[in-house]
Amino acid sequence: MPRSRDGKHTFCVYGSSSVNTPQPYLDVARKLGNLLADGGHTCVNGAGRAGCMGALNDGVTERCGRVRGVIHEMWIVDASEHPQVKDLRVVGGQGLQERKRMLMEGADCIVALPGGLGTWDELWEMVCLKGIGLCDVPICVLDVEDFYAGFKVQTKRAQADRLLYADMDKLLHFESDPAKAIEWCVSQLGAPGRDHKPNRRLERTTSGVNPPTTTSWSNSDRFMWACSVIACSGALTLAMTALRR
């Protein structure tokens, strides 16, 4: 069921931060920001001032919408943050896991705009978690001017070669229009069966980390548990490597 009873939701949006982002991508990002603000939704993103992120934040703030930015401290020194994003969360760490966790904290759905390696990393990590039952948020990709055409081809090939555990159509949805992307996400939030329990096969892991024992997981619970599994697995690998020396 939707997290919000009044039809207002929290959208986590991924997108480029490059100053060289083509204008058509910027136009769609800005339009998405306008629509999220007009709909009373909250937009969470990487707080950038350039690229699709910058245009998105321009679109939200020029309509007096709600935006929450999550940025790594290493980009603060470069003044990469958008000046109009007042709710700014600064995170540290040697990697980007904490930033990605906070981007998803409280999010009801995900929309991905055109972007580079960082956008792809964020997008595919969440698709992977959804595929193994650790996340059930709707994920929509805004395929502006066929930017993600290659992704479609690759996923269809993987599906045809039976390399995937889940149907990609159930994990990832594509739209070319921002209004339709929002409409699809909201429709999925009210779809029957969304509040499913996590996959039973994931209740015990080789890392020794057990999932929360609460009767209902939030999306952030699932994401935080997955991050702890990854961290513990990495620590175990390092310890075993040290013992072999």
Pick out its properties.
245 residues, alpha/beta, Rossmann fold, 7-stranded parallel beta sheet, 9 helices, 13% strand, disordered C terminus
Please describe what this structure looks like:
Residues 194-215 are annotated as: Disordered. By secondary structure, the protein is α/β, with parallel strands linked by helices. The chain has one domain: Rossmann fold (3-Layer(aba) Sandwich), CATH 3.40.50.450. 44% of the residues lie in helices and 13% in strands. It has helices spanning 23-38, 51-61, 73-76, 97-104, 117-131, 149-160, 168-171, 178-189, 219-244, and strands at residues 10-14, 42-45, 66-72, 87-91, 109-112, 139-142, 173-175. The protein has a 7-stranded parallel β-sheet, with helices on both faces. The model is unreliable at 196-217 and 231-245 (pLDDT under 50).
Topology:
Layout: E1 10-14, H1 23-38, E2 42-45, H2 51-61, E3 66-72, H3 73-76, E4 87-91, H4 97-104, E5 109-112, H5 117-131, E6 139-142, H6 149-160, H7 168-171, E7 173-175, H8 178-189, H9 219-244
Parallel strand pairs: 1-2, 1-5, 2-3, 3-4, 5-6, 6-7
**Count of domains:** 1
Text of the CATH class: Alpha Beta
Shape: globular
**Largest sheet report:** 7 strands, parallel
Write down the secondary-structure element order. Answer: EHEHEHEHEHEHHEHH
How many beta-strand segments?
7
Which residues sit in consecutive blocks of at least 5 with pLDDT less than 50? Answer: 196-217, 231-245
**Kindly, what is the distance between the CA atoms of the first and last residues, rounded to a whole number of angstroms?**
52 Å
Strands side by side in the biggest sheet: 4-3-2-1-5-6-7
Q: In which range does the helix fraction lie?
A: 40-55%
Radius of gyration: 18 Å
Write down the overall mean pLDDT. Answer: 78
**Second-tier CATH architecture:** 3-Layer(aba) Sandwich
Beta-strand content estimate: 5-15%
CATH topology name, in short, is: Rossmann fold
> Given the helix and strand composition, which structural class is it?
alpha/beta
Q: Helix segment count?
A: 9
